[in-house]
Structure formats: C-alpha cells, structure tokens
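Re: How this chain folds, sequence and tokenised backbone to follow

Filed under: protein folding, tokenised backbone structure, sequence and structure records.

Contents: The amino acid chain and a row of whole-number tokens, matched residue for residue.

Body of memo: The sequence and its backbone structure tokens, given next.
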Amino acid sequence: MNEAEYRPGLENVIAGETAISTIAGGLQYRGYRIEDLADHATFEETAYLVLYGELPNQNELDAFSGRLQANASVPPQVIEVLGSIPPTASMMDVMRSATSLLAHWDAETEDSSHDANLRKSERLLAQLPVVLAARYRLRQGKQPVAADPSRTLASNLLWMLHDEPPSARQIRALDLTLILYAEHEFNASTFTARVVCSTLSDLHASVAASIGALKGPLHGGANERVMDILLAVESAEAASEWVQQAFANKTRIMGFGHRVYKEGDPRARYLKSWCEQLAEETNHQDFERNAQIIEDAVVSQKGIPPNLDWPSARLYYYLGLPIDLYTPLFVVSRVVGWSAHVVEQLDNNRLIRPRANYTGELDRDWLPMEGR
C-alpha cells in the first residue's frame, strides 16, 4: 500500500455512498437544509424523512406517530433488569445493554429485510425514550411513568422523566435538539453501525455497537463535559480566568471545534437563540453570560467556533435534565440516523473491510523458547 494514501483517523477519506445526509456546504437531511427542518418540522416528521426518504403527508405522519405511540413500552422483564443494574452504572452502558435486551423480545430480530428493518427502527425509536426515563426513575427509587399516547415523543420523554406536564417551550426546545442530533453522515457511531451490519449482523446489534462508539467523550460524551466547565465558573470573572488558564495549560475545551465544520457548526448557531430564551424562562441568565464569555475568548483568540454540544448542554440543563442523561438523549435521537444507515447499507451491501498501513517488522526468524 502506498504510504501517501494513509489518512490518520480516515480524515477526508470517502468510505462509502449515502443518500441520507450530507455535511457539504451545510447539513442537509435527504436534501432538506437543517435550518428549514428546525424552523418548520417536528421530530416525528424529521424521523420519517430520514427513515423513508420523503417528508410525510398528514396521513403518513399520523400513521407513523400512531405506530410510535403504540410501541412506546418495553417488556416488564426489561424493566426488571433496568432496576437490578447497579446505580453506579453509566447511563450509556444501560442504553447499550437495554438495546441488546430488546432484541430478545423483537419477533423480527433475525429478519434483516428492508421492510423488517424499518419496522424494527420504529420500535427502537419508540422504546429507547421509555428505557431512558424508566432507568432514571428507578435509580431514584421511583416507579416508571407510562407513556401518554396523546403526547409527542419529546413531550412524552419529559413527561416520563418528571411526572409532570412540560411547557410548550420546553417541548419545542427538546424537539429541536432531537431534530439537530438525528443524523450526521459518516460520523464515528454511524460508521460503526454500517461496519457491523455489513457483516450481516442485525439492526439491534448495530445500534448497540453505535451506542458504544457514541459513549466516548470525543464523540457523544462531549456535551456532558461542557457542563463540567460551566458549573465550575460562577461569575463573569471566573469564566474569563478559567478560559485563559485553559489556554495557558493547553487544555482541550469541550464543545468547540469540529472535524468537518471548520467555519462553524450550523446546528450550534441555530440552537443558541433557544438557549437564550430558555435561560430567561428558567432564570439562568448567568449561565448564558458565562458561556458567552468563554465562547468569545475561544473564537477570538483561537479561531475555533462552537459545535452543537456547546449550546445543547446548557439547554438540557435549563430543562432540568441530569447531566448523565445528555448523551443518552443523543442516543434517543441518533437511533433514527443509525437505523437509516443500516437499512441503506444492507440494501446494497458489501462487507466493509479496509486495509492497514503496516508499520511493524517483517520476515523475522523464529526464536525457540530457550533463545527468547
């Protein structure tokens, strides 16, 4: 292999074809700009678009939403396991394990046909919010709250977590984050899904593997680390001192920079105004001020714009969500993209098996035991 062809981290390597999304010139799902979807669509409409390729008409949307509501429950045996997992377990590990468990109760687990995978995708999309909310409440010594069939997915998730009706602004804010996180081309976790299913493994196994990839702080876990920063600075002066100290120590500041979006993440720009609105509603203007001080310093002194994790972390905080739920919320949304990629990969499958640029020794002489 020509060493000049090697790209660390596969940066800018074209590893396949997709019609699901592109990040060239701004993020688009199935040809629709993310800004237009955030302005006009619901998460359910967006999920349908990503999975099926077209925006739904009213009848299709009603049917799709009805199927999600009908599948918004998990077997009692899974709930029992969720309650028995040690309370110290990572929520991401719980989401991964629950995905594997749900496969045992899905009658179509071993059917990897196009239509069966779409049906399984819908079921996982409906079930994972239930898993997240149930585990959260069980960990607190409370009983899970059943899904309300009259609510949207975002509304139901807040309802099941808090056992009280969320406000319209809270629902829309969460809905927006689910739209913005739903799909993002060949990121690490999505590529993982495609690699796993390319072996002809099943959708649940592919999604479980994707959750493992998303757990890492260089991918999905960054939004949790963002809150560590903002909780550590309690004043404008502290925020300014913190960021300058981070520069001096060459500390990586989570929530900034992106492998592809060199000029800034369009999702972060869109969500920023919602952070400001919710901060005012929940009396967290100090967080917005401190976040802006850090953002201004990183952008002006380092030329690195924020990514989606920077605003989404504090928006989740304003919604009263525990920090260790932030990345699992990413799972609830991104299962749409992962599933669509599994379907697309298997529709025209070829085993993904790249080569390596070998850097070790060659043709070494065998050493008998006494000579080692």
Notes: The chain has a mean pLDDT of 93. Residues 114-139 form the longest helix (26 residues). Residues 192 and 210 are 6 Å apart (CA to CA).
